[in-house]
Design a protein that fits this description.
Residues 17-273 form the Mannitol dehydrogenase N-terminal domain. By secondary structure, the protein is α/β, with parallel strands linked by helices. It has helices at residues 25-29, 31-42, 58-66, 108-116, 146-153, 161-175, 191-204, 208-217, 234-242, 284-307, 313-317, 320-334, 346-357, 366-369, 373-390, 396-408, 426-436, 440-448, 456-459, 462-478, 480-488, and strands at residues 3-7, 16-21, 48-53, 71-78, 81-87, 90-95, 122-125, 181-184, 223-226, 251-254, 258-262, 278-280. It is globular. The structure holds 1,4-dihydronicotinamide adenine dinucleotide (NAI) and D-mannonic acid.
């Protein structure tokens, strides 16, 4: 019998003090939930959210508006216990992307006006790692990208998140309005600094004095965000309907949630500590631990599991050999690269991750996690691997993960069934496989030479590249179980 705990939304509406870019599943299940809980506890109605999509999913924008900007979040502790939260803290939804007719910027004016308004004191973002248009390895702005090039050519009609931030800050500066604080909530290391990097580089292409002003006056605190929020499936929606939840904008997620935020908000912020948000001076230890242990493990499961036809995270960690690989990776290959937050019980944290991954009430598809690997793997595996290799460590799990990512990029699993390769560099991957698919050594060399993904020190490490090639051959010739055994029984 399912145990259901229901939490209705606050009945009052709130003034908009926050604009969010990236109205996705995670925003609805994480930041918006914290803010709903904050305002119900504090009675402070100054921090309502205007949430916008800059690309895709206009149906969600309009669906939320039609539903009076209320939706449900189903927080599953396990398959028998769920908390159903009604969220009402999103006060407005806007769309500035390209519509079905190819027109851009339906609500662009309204969005920029909202961002330039003095009442808006924080802008948060979940636009995915690729939404900042940064070279994943160097952090340089991808100024040749057509979207960024368009923002450089027409800065007052921005299409990208960095472009939106630059135009809104330019308007505030011109009007003598203090800047908002920019709080990135994407899975990137040093995400505040990376966001600043994108914004300042783009601003400099428009007006060097504006770029200098942004560098001097605008706060870009870092944050570590953690809550597993899979893309909704039909099965998720059917289960919610059984609980009496019929809104198409509902999301399902785990009960666990964490938000660690650098406390740098010159224009003020909600006092959200009472709702579990950890305000700290330095997010880096929390961020690196989470990105390498949780997300690094997720990406290992994604490529290795999907190649063997496994569909979800829970199904993958039900396999003893994949659990053994994660244990090896977390303790032997990732943990030595970490400066842990004070008081962290690493074994306990690693065990909690395996328990969270095993939450069978979530349909967390491996192929969703496999998306955008070129934007994710540098911070999840590769930056730690550089440090480990410099210390002379063997990294068989990381080598196997890279081999699996390269093989996954071929677009079919080990049995020849199609897998979804969704990545800004997908065309390049396909070209590499077309040229070198029959020559594994050349294929590995070609992927390892991608200096916008693989750090040069790792690309130059011939012994490591040989390990990747050996893992690739074992995976493709002998299968997943043999490849895993090579790591965990070595
Ligand atoms: P989603 O697919 O539901 O939403 C993605 C959002 O990003 C959409 O609003 C989309 O319009 C926007 N977007 C994508 N590419 C963009 C671009 N180039 N420019 C501007 N906007 C763009 O995905 P979800 O679950 O909301 O995740 C979004 C991000 O949140 C992740 O990439 C990650 O950085 C972060 N996150 C997600 C977690 C999860 O478990 N889903 C957990 C922790 C962090
Ligand atoms: C996942 C993350 O899709 C992915 O890349 O690894 O979204 C993961 O669910 C979150 O970071 C958990 O906090």
């Amino acid at each position: 019998m399912m145990s259901i705990t229901r939490y209705p939304a606050a009945s009052r509406r709130a003034a908009i003090g926050i604009v969010h870019l990236g109205l996705g599943a995670f925003h609805r299940a994480h930041q918006a939930v914290y803010l709903e809980r904050y305002r119900q506890r504090s009675g402070d109605d100054a921090w309502g959210i205007c949430s916008a999509n800059l690309r895709g999913n206009v149906a969600l924008v309009d669906g939320l508006a039609a539903a009076g900007h209320r939706y449900h979040v189903a927080e599953y502790t396990d398959s028998e216990n769920v908390a159903l939260r009604e969220i009402g803290t999103i006060e407005e939804t806007l769309f500035s992307g390209r519509d079905a007719g190819g027109q851009w910027g339906r609500d662009l004016d309204a969005l920029l006006e909202r961002m330039a308004a003095s009442e808006t004191r924080i802008v948060t973002l979940t636009v995915t790692e690729k939404g900042y248009f940064l070279n994943p390895a160097s952090g340089e702005l991808l100024s040749d990208d057509p979207m960024i090039a368009a923002d450089i050519a027409e800065p007052s009609r921005p299409r990208t998140a960095p472009g939106m931030l630059v135009e809104a800050l330019a308007r505030r500066r011109a009007q003598g309005v203090a800047p908002f604080t920019v709080l990135c909530c994407d899975n990137m290391p040093d995400n505040g600094r990376r966001t600043r990097n994108a914004v300042v580089q783009l601003a400099a292409r428009r007006d060097p004095e504006l770029a200098t002003w942004i560098e001097r006056e605008v706060a870009f605190p870092c944050s570590m965000v953690d809550r597993i929020v899979p893309a909704m499936t039909e099965r998720d929606a059917a289960r919610l309907a059984e609980l009496g939840v019929a809104d198409a904008q509902a999301v399902a997620c785990e009960a666990f949630s964490q938000w660690v935020v650098e406390d740098s908000f010159p224009q003020g912020r909600p006092y959200w500590e009472a709702d579990g948000v950890e305000m700290v001076d330095d997010v880096a230890p929390f961020e690196t631990m989470k990105l390498r242990l949780l997300n690094g493990s997720h990406s290992l499961l994604a490529y290795l599991g999907a190649l063997d036809g496994i569909a979800t995270v829970a199904e993958a960690v039900a396999r003893d050999d994949l659990r053994a690989l994660l244990h090896h990776y977390m303790h032997r290959e990732a943990a030595p690269t970490l400066s842990l937050p004070a008081g962290t019980d690493l074994s306990g944290y690693a065990a909690s991750l395996l328990a969270r991954f095993g939450n069978d009430s979530l349909q967390h598809r491996l192929q969703q996690i496999a998306m955008d690997g070129s934007q994710k793997l540098p911070q999840r595996w590769l930056q730690g691997a550089v440090a480990q290799r410099q210390a002379g460590a063997a990294l068989p799990a990381t080598a196997l993960g890279l081999a699996a990512w390269i093989r996954y990029a071929a677009g079919h699993d080990l049995r020849g069934n199609r897998v979804e390769v969704s990545d800004p560099l997908a065309a390049r991957f396909a070209d590499c496989h077309a040229r070198h698919g029959g020559d594994p050594a050349a294929l590995i060399d070609a992927f390892m030479a991608m200096d916008d993904v693989v750090p040069p020190a790792l690309a130059a490490d011939a012994a490591f590249a040989a390990d990747v090639l050996d893992a690739y051959r074992r995976l493709t010739d002998d299968g997943l179980a043999a490849a895993l055994a090579r790591v965990t029984h070595a």
